[in-house]
Amino acid sequence: MLVFNGKYFANILKLIVEKREMQEEYIKRINKVLAFIDENLDADLSLQTIAAIAFYSPFHLHRLFKAITNETLNAYVIRKRVERTAMMLIHNKAYSIAEIADKYGFKNDSTFSSTFKKIYGQSPKAFRKANLDNFSKISKVNSKIGKVNFITEEYLCNINNLKNWIMVNAKIEIRELPKMNLAYVTQIGVDGIEDAFQRIVKWAAPKGLFAKTDTKVCRVFHDSFKVTDADKVRMSIGILTNEDLKVDGEIGLSTLEKGKNIVARFVIETQEFEKSWDSLFIWMNENGYKKADRNPFEIYHNNFNEHPEKKTIVDLCIPIE
Fold first, then answer.
1. pLDDT digits (tens, 9 = 90+) for 231-281
2. Is the pLDDT of residue 105 over 50?
3. Cα distance between residue 301 and residue 109, in whole Å
4. Which CATH number is correct for 170-319, 3.50.50.60, 3.40.50.920, 3.20.20.100, 3.20.80.10?
5. 76-151 domain in CATH 2.60.120.200?
6. DSSP string for residues in 102-145
7. Distance between CA atoms of 99 and 19, rounded to whole angstroms?
């Protein structure tokens, strides 16, 4: 029979706490890295540069980044750059292909074209021609064939359906939103989203944040489902408030900057979010608004489980210039 004294259990508990704190520190530093990459896609984003930002050795950062994001740092940076250029090719007619490539760190036209084609199966020029003002999901190259979306009669019919949808289901305003503080957890991919919401609510509730009228649960999109695979889309799921916040553990701290937004109030079921977002971007385009270089986000006004029809009351927000 084994007998363990109190000191043994105290040491075990100490090791558990230290491991948890170490994991939280890893997440904090990777959150910092992800934010830095988003804001500096036109700059030097080598492993050595990013390692210095995270205060890790390049070797340690390489292993840690892949463990948390399931991508190497280099693959992540290239994907983010190409996906940003794809969005600009679709929606920013005023920019030339060379200007778009340069804006996101591609200094060589042939390198940009070959890298882009590996992901989308077309040259940037052909992609722009095929997808200009396309609001549906853009397919990427799979392991065997390149699959590309084109604007077809079926797509144009869907556009009309989405226009009708938003007219019936949304109240749309142009509003100047104030700068707001965001306490968040990072979520990559669609699996585990519900758990991420539960973690941020569990963190916020004991602090009395929900007693304040301006506190809302939100979701910020750092990638677009249109050009990014669902398992790689990065989101910040968090608490949005005007109050000063102090964070701890895995919780990150950021801000949503003051600015003009299209704000559309929907009362929808879970499966209607994609349709609502698509329809809102079409509305933005047709009404002559241009998306600002800030991230779209959702603000929730209820717990859908408490709604009689299990619907979510939500504001979909697109920052505009």
1. 999 999 999 998 889 998 889 999 999 999 999 999 999 999 999 999 999
2. yes
3. 46
4. 3.20.80.10
5. no
6. HHTT---HHHHHHHHHHHHSS-HHHHHHHHTT--SPPP-B-SS-
7. 46
